[in-house]
Design brief:
The protein has 553 residues and is an alpha+beta fold. Helices cover 24% and strands 25% of the residues. The strands form five sheets. Strands 1, 2, 7, 8, 9, 10, 16 and 17 form an eight-stranded mixed β-sheet that branches. Strands 5-4-12-13-14-11-15-18 form an eight-stranded mixed β-sheet, sandwiched between helices. It has a four-stranded mixed β-sheet with strand order 22-21-23-24, with helices on one face. The longest helix has 36 residues. The chain starts with 14 loop residues before the first strand and ends in a 5-residue tail after the last helix. About 4% of the residues have low confidence.
Length: 553
């Protein structure tokens, strides 16, 4: 591995911040909002001169919407998104044809009892301005990162503004790289990737056309056809068409190609054409000293299934509270060591699902086109372009389980489960090890059972009207206990901490006795559970100290 040049800690810098965020897409912008909420000084740099004009990512899943709910953004995002009836995928030969099949996008088409929110279909170029306006920290567009130097105290980044011909230096304690699948930071660090690599070369055509007669009565967020995929872009109009990139792009008649896929005599006013490569890879490492990778810089996921952006949002939700703890002094630098072992297995599992979705979709499209060419296409010979797990992936998004030093095993065996049914469909809280229910990061695919085990996301339970157990989490650790007075912290505590009551019926479902408690991390994952009560008077203090590591003196 090529060594990162050692920086001179005494070098003059034009800007000095706690965290430099590289990349102004949804992941970098969300990290900026999260860190600002924690009081961490940040600066974000983006080599583009503006936010992306392309729709790109389109699905905000339920877990991402839970994160945005915690930031006070969920309502604004939903208001700018499509209505819930667009949370569906339809399969047709052409857009003007009839449905051969359709499937709801779970957690988007309708609420699910496992979450206090509903996901949304919305375009990335609608999401990014909302995220940009949700924080005040400095953002520099048109600033390209060209160099990094690291020392024991921080990182020095060299930026170039090509419009002005200016070079500046930023001094940061940490760098959060969210600069995309072709990450400059990852290249400078000489971090390799694993995975299939290039899966396809794709062209996105953004166009305007009056398609109300073809789609209005049967709305969907995705129309999967034999001649490419159609996506409505905004509630007020606009479309994109995705298809394999033709060999001769210079001579391609994009309007004609779109009209053919529409299957109707409709004028398509082509606005933009973008050629891109669909990659599938995961970085070999997510961390190099004080530099951490997130989003597409850490894992490039195919778009099938809408997993990519959402996985990146989960990355920074996991990482930002840890950076805040280190910077504010209530956590040791070792807490950052938990980021890679928690998120890297999730990235590999998500990649497997996304690649399987993509290969299945492409194969079905290819076979259907061949059937149409040969005249063998009949309705009863249609093969669905998804498995039952295609868009029903609650296990992937809500069932993630972390196994690291920032998660503690159960304190003692749980009480015997009651014969009565558990609230909200929760399984009993029985102990099976440190999150040991998925082997490599949690539930698989459609299978999600809400479990209050260490490493798992705290199950959603209503504490009050419109107030979830997840709403009890924020810029602090949370203790939920049926007898909260037993768990009030002593004066020696240095961690941000709140203690709340957990109703008795929920306590039983979480595997807690009358003296038990859950310790929940700021990212909503359970750090520790004491089913029968604390083993010692200082159990909470010791758990927090173990999870966060020794703070720097």
């Amino acid at each position: 591995m090529a060594a990162v040049p050692e920086a001179n800690a005494d070098v003059d810098a034009d800007v000095d911040v706690d965290v430099l965020i590289v990349g102004g897409g949804p992941v970098g912008l969300t990290a900026r909002v999260l860190l600002e909420r924690w009081g961490v000084r940040t600066s974000l740099v983006e080599k583009r001169t503006e936010l992306s004009p392309f729709p790109r990512s389109r699905l905000v899943n339920v877990r991402s919407m839970e994160i945005f709910r915690g930031l006070g953004l969920a309502t604004r995002i939903t208001d700018a998104a499509f209505p819930p009836e667009y949370g569906r995928i339809r399969f047709r030969d052409t857009l003007s044809g009839r449905d051969f099949a359709s499937a709801a996008i779970v957690g988007v088409r309708a609420p699910v009892p496992e979450s206090p929110v509903t996901g949304a279909v919305t375009s990335q170029d609608r999401l990014e301005p909302l995220l940009l306006g949700a924080a005040d920290a400095t953002v520099r567009f048109g600033a390209e990162l060209v160099g990094l130097g690291e020392d024991t105290e921080g990182v020095t980044a060299v930026l170039v503004d090509h419009r002005r011909g200016e070079e500046t230096r930023v001094r940061a304690r940490y760098v959060l790289a969210a600069d995309g699948a072709n990450s400059t930071v990852r290249r400078l660090l000489d971090i390799g990737t694993t995975g299939p690599g290039e899966l396809a070369r794709v062209t996105t055509v953004v166009f305007d056309a009056d398609l109300s007669g073809l789609a209005a009565r049967q709305p969907a967020g995705v129309y999967f056809t034999a001649h490419g995929t159609f996506l409505p872009l905004y509630p007020e109009g606009g479309w994109s068409w995705l298809a394999p990139t033709p060999e001769d792009t210079a001579r391609a008649d994009w309007s004609a190609l779109v009209s053919r896929a529409l299957g109707a005599d409709v004028d398509a006013d082509v606005l933009r054409v973008q050629h891109w490569t669909m990659n599938a890879a995961v970085a070999e490492r997510f961390r190099h000293g004080r530099i951490l990778l997130a989003g597409d810089a850490a894992h490039a996921l195919p778009i099938m299934g809408g997993l990519g952006m959402n996985a990146g949002l989960a990355d920074v939700h996991n990482l930002c509270w840890k950076l805040a703890g280190v910077r504010h002094g209530w956590a040791g630098p070792g807490l950052l060591d938990s980021y890679e072992p928690e998120r890297l297995p999730v990235a590999h599992r998500t990649l497997r699902q996304a690649v399987a979705n993509t290969k299945l979709g492409f194969a079905v499209q290819d076979r259907r086109r061949e059937q149409l060419r040969s005249g063998a296409a009949t309705p009863d010979r249609v093969e669905l372009p998804w498995s039952e797990r295609y868009f029903a992936q609650l296990g992937l998004v809500l069932g993630v389980s972390y196994d690291s030093a920032a998660v503690l095993p159960d304190g003692s065996p749980p009480p015997e489960p009651s014969s009565s049914s558990s609230p909200s469909g929760m399984g009993d809280g029985g102990h099976e090890g440190n999150g040991g229910d998925g082997g490599d990061g949690g539930d698989e695919g459609t299978d999600y059972l809400p479990l209050a085990r260490p490493g798992r996301r705290m199950p959603h339970l209503w504490l009050a009207p419109d107030r979830s157990t997840l709403d009890a989490c924020g810029e602090w650790f949370t203790v939920l206990a049926p007898d909260p007075a037993r768990w009030e912290p002593g004066a020696e505590g240095t961690w941000p901490l709140r203690v709340e009551a957990l109703p008795g019926e929920y306590a039983e479902a979480c595997g807690l006795g009358p003296r038990g408690a859950l310790l929940i991390r700021p990212d909503g994952h359970i750090a520790a559970r004491w089913p029968a009560g604390p083993a010692a008077d200082n159990a909470l203090h010791q758990a927090l100290a173990t999870v966060t590591g020794p703070a720097r003196a």
